[in-house]
Design a protein that fits this description.
The chain has 2 helices and 8 strands. The protein has 154 residues and is an alpha/beta fold.
């Protein structure tokens, strides 16, 4: 297997044949190289119901696209990706966001459009660098008081 040098984006497709998947697994050293070089992770439209726990292993990822899946909960595993700048979880079925989103100090864009959110975690107001927050088409009646502390929101 060849080492992946200069990888900027990693896309995973659900229609990938199982035979191809077996050959693309690679060894642990190669997996670590891919995880450390990946800047964008595209997991959109693959039918997943949960955010993969291993997503936090992508050490330098800046953008994660999880749109158009069947995700029901924004879990804390995504909050461990401290380098994350853009998170798109639009067009899912997210009802719950776990606390801990304030760990995403570099997050600038958060797209939560077209979900089933009823509210937000208490610490959402602590997203210091957030510039764009998309909340259209959810079940939210009121914004948490902490949101008004988001000075960089455009």
């Amino acid at each position: 297997n060849k080492h992946v040098v200069g990888l900027q984006e990693c896309s995973l497709y659900s229609k990938m044949a199982s035979k191809e998947r077996k050959h693309s697994r690679g060894n642990n050293k190669e997996k670590k190289i891919v995880r450390s070089l990946t800047k964008a992770l595209d997991l959109s439209e693959i039918g997943i119901k949960k955010i993969p726990k291993d997503i936090s292993l992508f050490l330098n990822v800046k953008e994660i696209d999880l749109k158009k899946n069947n995700i029901t909960k924004l879990s804390a595993s995504i909050y461990q990706v401290e380098t994350l700048e853009i998170l798109d979880v639009s067009y899912n079925m997210i009802k719950v966001m776990e606390n801990g989103i304030s760990n995403l100090k570099n997050l600038m864009i958060l797209n939560l459009n077209y979900n089933q959110l009823n509210g937000f975690p208490d610490d959402i107001g602590e997203l210091e660098g957030i510039r764009k927050l998309y909340l259209n088409n959810n079940n939210v009646d009121e914004l948490p008081p902490g949101m008004f502390r988001m000075k960089t929101l455009q």
